[in-house]
Amino acid sequence: MGWRSTAVSGVVLIALAACGEPRGIIGSTVGPSPVVLTDTSAAQLTVSVALNMGDSTPRDRTSLHIGFQHDGHPVKFVAGEHVECGGVASKPFIGSFEGSFATASIADKVMTCTYTSGQQSASLSFRVPKQLVVVSPREGEQVPRGRSTIVSYTGSSDPTLWVVALSKMSKASAQPGPTLISATLDTSSFTPGEGSIALTDPNSIPVPDFQAGQFKSGSTWARRMTIVSVVWV
User: Which of 55, 70, 120, 138 is most buried, by CB atoms within 10 Å?
Assistant: First the structure.
């Protein structure tokens, strides 16, 4: 594994360790056993929408997870139920459907999903949060080390946003300054060579404009991350 891969992986681990929800959206956990229902219409189901933006390979993708439960149990679909989001069929799993999208194509836009059970269909919609973007330094740029390395970004006005820089043997972290569009990090102890800079939400963030009135109830959350590779000089 090269230094670039090591640096990127290290930043991901550091950022996730700092956050309240270290698991990814799509992961196996011990939970209630699935249930098979005779009636899988939307009115019988609780729906949850989760977005994982940028914490994947490739890094410009967003994972969408739509979960369905009944009385706290995931629903095992056995009658051809299906979900389409943005006109694209989602992949079925026990109790959920999942899809992957280019983040730039859906960020800050309303997405509509359609759940179909037999002859019945129900829709849900939400606005995808804005994309986190590192404006400066840019991908692959040579960055001088120093006590005041400025990282500029767009996509967040959260003063708790995590900004993390990593070199071969060191890391530096900071939170946004008063303007909420940049952060200043001390990279003076970094060794020259390949490294990276990451932005990540410290906690899940709301998904705006959520509409799922045909379902019994619904909930949403999102997590965002972005990374650029740089060379410290």
Answer: 55
Structure token digits, residue 225: 């991350």
Distances (CA, A) of 168 to 5, 144, 186, 191: 11, 15, 15, 7
For residue 75, which of 50, 56, 47, 99 has the smallest C-alpha distance? 47
The pair of structure tokens assigned to 19 is 């956050």
Tokens for 163? 């900004």
Mean pLDDT of the chain: 89
Structure-token pair, residue 125: 């919609």
Which one-letter amino acid corresponds to residue 57?
Answer: T
98: pLDDT strictly greater than 50:
yes
pLDDT digits (tens, 9 = 90+) for 191-208: 999 999 999 999 999 999
Strands annotated E in the chain: 46-53, 61-70, 73-74, 82-85, 88-89, 91-93, 96-102, 110-117, 120-127, 133-136, 142-143, 149-154, 162-166, 171-174, 182-185, 193-200, 217-232
Alpha-carbon torsion, ordered 21, 22, 25, 26, to 10 deg: -150
